[in-house]
Amino acid sequence: MKRYLALIATALVATAAAAAGAADITTTAYSKQVPVGATDRVNINNVAGSLNITAWDRKEVDIQGELGPDVDRVEIKQGEGGVDIRVILKDDPWNNNSWKNVSWKRSEADLRIRVPAGVRLEASTVSASLTASGLRGKTRLKSVSGDVRSDVVAPDLEAKSVSGDVELTGSGAASRLRANSVSGDVTLNKVAGDVEAKSVSGDVEIQLQAAEDVEVASVSGDVAVAGGLANQGELEAESVSGRVRITAQAPGGYHYELKSFSGRIKSCLSGGQVEDSKNGRGGSVSGTLGQGSATLRVKSHSGNVELCDR
Amino acid sequence: MSRTEAPQKISSLQELQQAASPGRDLWPGIEARLAPRRRSWNVPASIAAGVVLVTVGVLIGLQFRTGASLPGAQESGALIRASLIDDPAYQHQRQELLRTLPARLESLPPESRQRIRDGLLAIQTAKQNIEAELGRDAGNVLLQELFVSTCQEEIRVLTFVGYVDGFNQEI
User: Fold this and answer.
1) Chain B contact for A139, CB < 8 A?
2) Using CA atoms, how far apart are residues B53 and B61, in angstroms rounded to an integer?
3) B18 inside domain
4) Residues of chain A positioned with their CB less than 8 A from the CB of B145
5) How far apart are CA A306 and CA A244, in angstroms?
6) Which domain, by its residues, includes B89?
7) What band does A103 get if pLDDT is binned at 50, 70 and 90?
8) pTM value surpassing 0.95
9) What is the dihedral of CA A178, A185, A67, A84, to 10 degrees?
10) Which of A8, A150, B57, B139 has the most beta carbons within 10 angstroms of its beta carbon?
C-alpha cells in the first residue's frame, strides 16, 4: 500500500512540476491582417503548436495567435497571386539540420487563421495539429507528426500525415479526396465522389455516401468501409495483412469479387449469397447482388475479408 | 572448424536470403556511411519518384492485360514480377530514393523518422512474404497484384518523405 501511495505522490509531484514548467513559458500575442484575392493562393507553414484555419467571406487573411518564446517571427510574404505565411523559429532546425535543440513547447505557435473561402490553400506543419473548415478552393493539408482534421467542402482536398491521424468529414457532396498516412489512422466520414484513402500500418475507416470511385488500401492496418456506392460506383479495397471489412449498399446492387491468398473470406449478406472460403483459408469468391450495377473488389494476402450489406 | 558446403539448390524465392529479416537495425550504419545531402535531393527525387511510379503503372497495366485465365498466365505472371524486380529503370530509381532516404530522414524530427522506418519495414516484410508465396505459386494473379501494389506503396512512402521535407522549401 505504501508503495502505491509513494507512486501516487511521485506522479502528483511530477504533474505539478510539469504544470509549473508550462506556466513558466510566456507567450506573445500575435495579430495581423493581410489583403488577398478571393481565389488567390495561400500557403501556411507552422512547426509546433496548432494551426486552425477557417473560411470567411472577406478578401483578407486574418491571423491571430500566441507565439512561444522560441518563435522568432511570423514571416508574411505577399506576392503575385497569393500570400505565404510561415512561422520562423529562433534556432531554425531546418537550417541547422538538427532537431536536438528544439524545445517543442517553447517553439509552439497557436495560430487561428481566417481566409477567403475560395482560396487555394496549402498548409503544412511539423508537429502542430492542423484543422481546417469551410474551405471551398483546392486544399492541401499536410503534417509530419500532427493530426490533420478537416470538413469536406472543397471539391478537391488532399490531407496527409506521416505519423498523425487524418480525419475528414463530409456532408455527402461529391469531392475528390485523397487521405494518406504512414502510421496514423485515416478516417473519412460521410464522403462521396472520388475517394482514395491509404495507410501503411494505420487503420483505414470510411463511411461512404453514394461514392463513385473508392480506392482504399493498407499494408498491415485494418480496413473498414461502410455505406453506399453510387449506381455505377466502384470500390477497390486492399490490405496485405490487415483485416478488410466492407458493408456496402448500392441502388442497383453490385458485382463483387473477394480474393484472399491465405485469409478467410466471410459473408454476412442478408441473402447469404457469398459462401465462405473453402477450407477456412484463402480463396476467391464472386457474385452479384441485385442488377450488379456497381462493382466491388477486395484483395488481401493474409488478412481476413468480410462482406456485408447491412 | 569450418568446412566448405556444396551450393544448395534453390527451388523457390522463399529460400533465397533476401527473404530473411535483418538481425539488427541497419539504419544507423547506413546513415553513418552516407554524407548528409540536405535540400539538393528534392527536385531529382521528385523526378525519380515520378519515373518509378510511371514504370510501376506500366507494369500494372501490362499485368491487367494478361489476366489469369489466358494461356500462359503463369509464365506471364512470373515475367511481370521479374520485370518489376529486374527492371533497371525501376531498380535504379528505387535505389536512388533509398540512397537519399537517410539524408532526407535526417531533416525530420526523430519520432517521425522512426515511424517512417517502421512503415518501410512493414512494407518490406509484406513484400518478402508475398514474394515467398510467389516463389511457390508464380502464376497467382492475386499475389502479383498485391506485390505490385505493395511496391507502389513503398514508392509512395519514399516519395512522401521528400514531400514533408519540402516543408522548408522557399515558397
Assistant:
1) no
2) 12
3) no
4) 299
5) 6
6) 38-168
7) confident
8) no
9) -10
10) A150
